Amino acid sequence: MGIENLVEIFRGENLNYNPFKKTAGKVGRFVTDNIEYAKAAADKFPAIIKSAKIPKATFLKSMELFDRSGQPTTNRTSSSNLGLLDKADKSKLKINILKTLGVNIKNLTPLAMQGLNFLASLPAATVSMVLQSTPANADEVNMTLEDFAKLNEGSTNVDKALPSEARDM
Q: Mean pLDDT highest for which of 78-92, 95-109, 112-126?
């Protein structure tokens, strides 16, 4: 089987995290050869895009199955053909990571994107604050480590009990 006889097919799916929502039996078998049509089907966050390369004859057979299924063919254009895969060919569909990332980024709302931008900027701000030098006082310029140790003597209260007064509760 030559490469020219293979067709890349796509399927866009919205992920359902609601255990009470049931899906129809034919969901998950619709495919297309147009990536934009698959992205339009995966229009809510989170979503996945699956893809596979199948023989052209198998895709033509899936288009015939779609026509016989009674689904409206008004969506079929010259640039997107819809097909209905049988269960054996459905297992060939694998998640396309790059296209899935792209469609999920597109589906994020502007507010969520603002939040992600804010979260992404936090580590950079923290690193720049840690690496930024602070000016030394005139007295600290020529001090050695021993001088800092002497300065710190007697100022720690880590092991000492804090003074407290007895009070009525």
A: 95-109
CA 158 from chain centre, in angstroms, equals 45
Angle (CA) 4 34 70, round 5°: 105
CA atoms within 13 A on the CB side of 4: 0
Tokens 């255990």 -> residue? 19
Q: Which single residue is written with the structure tokens 């399927």?
A: 11
Domain boundaries, the chain: 3-107
Q: For residue 62, what are its two tokens?
A: 């899936």
Peptide bond into 110 cis (omega under 30): no
Asked if 91 contacts 36 with a C-beta cutoff of 8 angstroms, the reply is: no
